[in-house]
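Worked example 3 (structure in, sequence out).
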């Protein structure tokens, strides 16, 4: 993998997150890691000197949330379309019950304060800056609240400063 400047990235964020999906991963070499598939999120600039940021959302029931809560960094890995089956699996099986990363065939790399996958075509290494649970009082439309949170199991929103962008050598950004 090679590091590039975030200003060199060229992609449609709506396709990248909503269609291609991404893996949210956190952990460390000593205690291990977990990952999950996500199709919600945001990329942009926030605070400071227009720092590049990523925003992710995790439900309290997700095992990966424990790792994101405990670690100062998380990564977002975008995979080639050939990994769609593994991405679906990683989003539907809990790492509490089995070693889903090993079963998926992905290769974890512990570096840059976190963990990402060797097979990723794009990795965003993010330092957590902010975390807050979505609040029922913030919803302006009852329909959104009822459809997305019938159990009132609100996502926690995490804002991470994108500190490093890695791309596979054979992939253009």
């Amino acid at each position: 993998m090679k590091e590039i400047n975030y200003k060199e990235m060229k992609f449609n964020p709506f396709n990248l997150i909503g269609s291609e999906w991404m893996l949210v991963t956190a952990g460390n070499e000593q205690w291990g890691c977990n990952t999950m598939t996500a199709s919600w999120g945001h990329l942009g600039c926030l605070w400071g000197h227009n720092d590049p940021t990523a925003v992710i959302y995790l439900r309290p029931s997700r095992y990966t949330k424990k790792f994101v809560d405990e670690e100062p960094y998380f990564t977002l890995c975008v995979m080639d379309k050939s990994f769609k089956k593994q991405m679906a699996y990683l989003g539907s099986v809990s790492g509490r019950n089995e070693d889903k990363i090993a079963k998926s065939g992905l290769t974890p790399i512990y570096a840059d304060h976190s963990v990402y996958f060797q097979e990723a075509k794009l990795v965003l290494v993010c330092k957590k800056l902010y975390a807050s649970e979505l609040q029922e009082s913030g919803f302006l439309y009852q329909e959104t609240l009822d459809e997305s949170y019938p159990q009132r199991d609100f996502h926690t929103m995490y804002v991470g400063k994108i500190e490093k962008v890695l791309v596979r050598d054979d992939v253009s950004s």
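Notes: The first strand starts at residue 2 and ends at 4. Helices lie at 13-19, 63-70, 84-92, 100-104, 142-148.
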